[in-house]
Amino acid sequence: MNLKKFILVFIPTFILLSVIIAKMGYSWWWLLLFCLLSTIPLVLGAIYIEQNFFIRSVNSLQDSNLPNIKDTDIILTFDDGIHPLWTPKVLDILQVQGVKAMFFVIGKNIEGHEEILKRLVHEGHIVGNHSLTHDMWFDMKSSAEMAAELEQMNSTVANILGKEYTPVYFRPPYGVTNPNLAKAIRQTGMTSVGWNLRSMDTVAKSKDQLLEKLKTLTRPGSIVLLHDRCEISVDTLTDYIVFCKQQGFTFTTL
């Protein structure tokens, strides 16, 4: 279900329930309860980007409509960079393994690390937009404020790399979506990218457990969410790539 379908169900149901309550003399608390329960799909739609509730995102390679996608293809994506220590180590591993990936970079993290950003594109990786600030209150901003963040991040990248490298892919901070963000994405003409394999590497305590989770959940068409600010992700990356190759998976980008 997306927002449009939700509204098409909610409005007639609300009207019908109101008529029934009025005619039968039931307590209006039942209508309030209905409204409260109706917020559940809204909340779930906001926090689970894979549901495409407010925004249609590319959550798997099957969603991408890209030509020449192979059944064995998967995508590695890294969020929250640039990290001065761990991002270069991730790049080292990808270079040794001959793998291209997508990096959803936070704009404020670029200053002072411009050479790392240049290395990303020079080695064939894709730079995506992960907002300018990744502010914890990002989702409370107006659509104009959100659009401004996306555009400022894009301008930061373009000023360093050239306009041809202006990001076209955007990943919402925390993967949270809402109507304001949907409007901002439309205004900026960007494509939202989610995932269908969330590693939870930011809270992982054990390399072995993280690796086992990745091995178990990887499927053809997977878009894998990792973070290049996490040491545990760096420690796991080589073993995971080797496993994927042994299983016949191939790596691509959007």
Describe this protein's structure.
The protein has 254 residues and is an alpha/beta fold. It has two domains: 3-47; 61-251, Alpha-Beta Barrel (TIM Barrel), CATH 3.20.20.370. Helices cover 48% and strands 12% of the residues. The protein has nine helices and eight strands. Strands 1, 2, 3, 6, 7 and 8 form a six-stranded parallel sheet that branches. Helix 1 (3-24) runs antiparallel to helix 2 (29-47) and helix 4 runs parallel beside helix 9. The longest helix has 22 residues, at 3-24. It is globular and about 70 Å long. The two termini are 25 Å apart. The relative contact order is 0.17. The model has no long low-confidence stretch (mean pLDDT 96).
Helix percent reads: 40-55%
Number of H- or I-type helical stretches: 9
The CATH architecture of the largest domain can be named as Alpha-Beta Barrel
Low-confidence stretches: none
CATH class of the largest domain, please?
Alpha Beta
**Mean pLDDT across residues:** 96
What do we call the CATH homologous superfamily of the largest domain?
Glycoside hydrolase/deacetylase
CATH topology of the largest domain: TIM Barrel
Number of domains: 2
Q: Shape, please?
A: globular
Portion in strands: 5-15%
**Main sheet characteristics:** 6 strands, parallel
The Rg value, from CA coordinates, equals 21 Å
**How do the helices and strands follow one another from N- to C-terminus?**
HHHEHEHEHEHEEHEHE
> Using DSSP, what is the number of strands?
8
